[in-house]
Amino acid sequence: MKSVFIDGEAGTTGLGIRERLAGRPDLTLRSIDPDRRKDPAARKALMAEVDLVILCLPDAAAKEAVALAEELGTGAPRILDASTAHRVAPGWTYGFAEMASGQAEAIAAAPKVSNPGCYSTGAIALVRPLVDAGLLPADYPLAVNAVSGYSGGGRQMIEAFEGGSGPVFELYGLGFGHKHLPEIETYGRLAARPIFIPSVGNYRQGMLVSVPLHLAALPGRPGVRDLETALRAHYPGDGQVRVGSSAPDDRLEPEALNGTDVMELRVYGRDDIGQALLVARLDNLGKGASGAAVQNAELMLGLAASSAARAAA
């Protein structure tokens, strides 16, 4: 039986991971006494006793936790970090299993895995297959739009919205330096920094990520169905990432996949005017956070996947 310690299990992502892993017959969850959760010696001692440590901590604390684990040398556990600290760091494997051929196997073999950001998951899922297929140039002037529920914004944002002081809708990250940009650029295989200005709505969870494209600016001027075909070729349809059908009269709202670990991709557009829109819909607490972490933990520990039970019908 494998054992896991969630360092930071009281936060939103940690609670979601614990809920998904609790009660599994093939796994033991280990916890630290709440009074000692900031005690380095106690945390290090528990790290030495488990197979996997999942970090649900702020960036600085995640780096400190990794340093603690590395002090154990050959007795160190494997690490899955849900913070932003190591997503593009050397020596870390990016935990988006469906991103590319062989990525799931790389995660399964890696000693240290970084869990992707929620916005990044949607953006990379849309862009990477098209770059790999040669349909989208790496230096295309890309813009990524997104809206999320407030649960992805951390304690202060959650308290503001649930306390009644949050706005109906707001843009943020207007300094053009959102923390998810490095991973979108790196794992989207982009040669030009995309414009990414996210937004938050006054609802708890659920996310839409969209990427507009001018078809005439793409090599060979592909049509809308060419883009959809490339996405369908990349994602087989029986996993957590699925390509859905689209119609001009569709209306997409962000909460449809809440409570699942599924991400749905769609392609809209008109060949006659040469415009297209790629859209990813996901639960920012599911495939965008805790659900992805559980998928990565299952790969790293060689466990049978159970998160498919949280998939949408």
- Helix and strand content put the structural class at alpha/beta
Question: Beta-strand level of the residues, as a percent range?
Answer: 15-25%
Strand order, largest beta sheet: 8-9-7-10-13-12-11
Q: What is the ordering of alpha helices and beta strands?
A: EHEHEHEEHEHEHEHEEHEEEH
Helix content: 25-40%
- Are there runs of 5+ residues with pLDDT below 50, and where? none
State the helix count. Answer: 9
Q: Distance N terminus to C terminus? A: 31 Å
Shape: globular
- Arithmetic mean of pLDDT: 95
Write down the Rg. Answer: 20 Å
By DSSP, the count of extended strands is 13
The major sheet is characterized as: 7 strands, mixed
Structure characterization notes:
By secondary structure, the chain is of the alpha/beta class. It is built from nine helices and 13 strands. The protein has helices at residues 12-21, 40-47, 59-70, 103-109, 118-132, 155-162, 181-187, 224-234, 286-301; strands at residues 2-7, 27-30, 52-55, 78-81, 93-94, 112-114, 143-149, 169-171, 195-201, 207-214, 241-243, 263-270, 275-282. β3 (52-55), α3 (59-70) and β4 (78-81) form a beta-alpha-beta unit. It is globular, with a radius of gyration of 20 Å. It starts with a strand and ends in a 12-residue tail after the last helix. The mean pLDDT is 95.
